[in-house]
Amino acid sequence: MRHRRWLPAPVTGNFLLAAAVAGLCSCAVGPDFHRPAPPDTDHYVAGAPIQTLGAPGSTAPVQTLVAEQDIPAQWWNLFHSEPLDTLVRTALHDSPTIAAAAAALRSAHEGYIAERGSLYPQVDAQFQAQREAAPAAAFGFPQLGTSTFTLFDAAVNVTYKFDLAGATRRQLEALAAQADYQRWQLEAARLTLAGNIVTTMITAAALNDQVAATNEILATQRDQLAIIQRQHSVGAASQADVLTQQAQVSQLESTLPGLQKSVAQAGHRLAVLSGQTPDHASTAGLSLSALTLPSQLPVSLPAKLVRQRPDVLASESQLHQASAQAGVATANLYPQLTLSGSIGSETTSITDLFSAGTAAWNIGGSLMQPLFHGGELRAKRRQAFADLDQATAQYRGTVLSALQDVADTLRALQDDALTLQADAQAEAAAHDSFEISRRQYQVGGTSYVNLLIAQRQYAQARLTRIQGEMARMTDSAALLQALGGGWWNRETDGSR
After folding, report:
1. pLDDT tier at 338 (50, 70, 90 boundaries)?
2. In terms of Cα–Cα distance, which of 476, 88, 72, 449 is closest to 295?
3. Which domains does the chain have, with CATH numbers?
4. 303-327: string of b/e by CB count within 10 Å (b at 16+)?
5. Of 7-21, 200-214, 292-306, 448-462, the least confident
6. Residue 474: its pLDDT value, please?
7. Which of 315, 349, 448, 486 has CA atoms 20 to 30 A from the CA of 117?
């Protein structure tokens, strides 16, 4: 990014005229900010764009990617879960993270309003009373001794600093950009909070499903253990078979505490994210079956993405702020003109204030042109332009990271669909194999080893399929979050 370097004009005999012309023209030195151009690409991944996720006719649902379809403000409603919608709305209203970001935005806005006052004359009322002793000798009358009196002074003072080079306007521009940055930080906090709740709830639902599946498999294995024990009692099974099955039951039982701990931790996280204490956690009834995988997912073009992602817009605001600060550093090299005046009343008796003959006034001005500061001002200007170059590079890096987020998520969704399809087929086959082996073993048609293998395969296949569903839902939410979350479609709903 190339920047025009403005340099101060040399001080000449026509200095006052140049200052007056600069004030009338209301120019502001330094670089004018221009919004960066969007990335010159229409694709996120190499090759043909992905349009369909999953194979039609398979047991796993198919998702369609729709180019330029808009994202709803409450994007989490695409999962069609009332508890999820309620939790997200509660969190957006009660979360301390959102409250802190909203307060930071208000602070930045008030800072801009405060600085904007410097564009206008500063008017102050002043009242002063002081006791004085003045020797008459100072005025050439030593014989009169010393006079002691009280002096009262009431006046209105007016000061106005002309923004000849635009330093004040550039500073206002920087503060406005800072307010914009805080606005996008608030949007980013809202988006991150909603995304964390969605993914945590999906995780909690999947963990509940894994606990339920483990308990069902455990019940089957306990039934199998009872059968083997009866067979052992009549000599149809060995003690080794009993011990092996008992080990299987115990190993599966040992996985339950870990799953239940993860469920509890997910509930604690959901409570804290929603602004409540962990003892309000509740994950009862959560199941992946209560969530609907979005059948259509929107995909914005890269040029539109950089106008939607709060983190990219926040980085752009920082770039704008750095550009304005470069203007401030440049303007500090130019003349500064200040006018001031005062009108009031001065008397030795407070009752005589504003009476005839007590009027006092003054008017004056100052013009200051920096001449020598040991290189300080020019070094600060170079520093400001270096900061601008840094902000430019950081903005570019933020854009590239945003594009990578979408590309990675698109690829993950494609792999999730293929993986879940295979997982569903594997679970169905493992279930059928286990049922066949179980019936055959009961009538002596297969060995216990074969039954044990079928049991393990089915248990693992079922848990793997649940994890595949969780990954697909989580990555669907990640795509909606990576695209910006639809904040631009949000209407005022009473939340922050």
Report:
1. very high
2. 476
3. 24-120+181-334+376-489 (1.20.1600.10)
4. eebbebbbbbbbbbbbbbbbbbbbb
5. 7-21
6. 96
7. 315
Give the DSSP per-residue string, 55-118: -TTSSSPPEEEEETPPPPSSGGGGG--HHHHHHHHHHHHH-HHHHHHHHHHHHHHHHHHHHHGG
Read off the tokens for 200. 């945590």
Question: Alpha-carbon Rg of the chain, whole angstroms?
Answer: 37
Q: Which residues contact 24 (CB under 8 A, 6 or more apart)?
A: none
Q: Between 370 and 12, where is the model more confident?
A: 370
Q: Which residues of 192-209 are buried (b: 16+ CB within 10 A; e: fewer)?
A: bbbbbbbbbbbbbbbbbb
Cβ atoms within 10 Å, residue 279:
7
Q: Which residues pair with 342 in a beta bridge?
A: 157, 362
Question: Distances in Å between the alpha carbon of 104 and those of 183, 185, 324?
Answer: 9, 9, 21
- Return the H-helix or E-strand segment holding 368: strand 359-368
What's the predicted TM-score (pTM) here? 0.85
Q: Are 192 and 342 in contact (CB under 8 A)?
A: no
Say which DSSP state 146 is in.
E
- At residue 457, the pLDDT reads 86
What is the pLDDT at residue 9? 38
* Contact status, residue 298 vs residue 69, Cβ threshold 8 Å: yes
Give residues with Cβ within 8 angstroms of 341, minimum separation 6.
Answer: 157, 158, 361, 362, 363, 364
As a whole number of angstroms, the distance between CA 475 and CA 375 comes to 55
Q: Residue 487's closest CA among 205, 230, 183, 219?
A: 183
Q: Are 64 and 458 in contact (CB under 8 A)?
A: no
Whole-angstrom distance, CA of residue 73 vs CA of residue 64? 20
Quote the CA–CA distance of 109 and 237 in Å, as a whole number.
Answer: 80
Distances (CA, A) of 191 to 16, 106, 186, 393: 54, 19, 9, 25
Rounded to an integer, the average pLDDT of 144-154 is: 86
Q: Using one digit for the tens of pLDDT, what is the confidence trace for 204-256?
A: 999 999 999 899 888 888 888 888 898 889 887 889 888 988 998 999 899 99
Distance of CA 316 to the CA centre of its chain: 14
Kindly list the distances between the CA atom of residue 330 and the CA atoms of 168, 320, 381, 389, in Å, as whole numbers in the listed order.
Answer: 12, 16, 6, 16
Residue with tokens 């980085």: 315
Q: Is the Cβ–Cβ distance between 397 and 312 less than 8 Å? A: no
The helix (H) or strand (E) run that includes residue 426 is: helix 376-442
Confidence of residue 149 (pLDDT cuts 50, 70, 90): confident
The DSSP bridge partners found for residue 133 are 148
Enter the tokens of residue 218: 């455990």
Query: Among candidates 442, 441, 460, which has minimal Cα distance to 451?
Result: 441
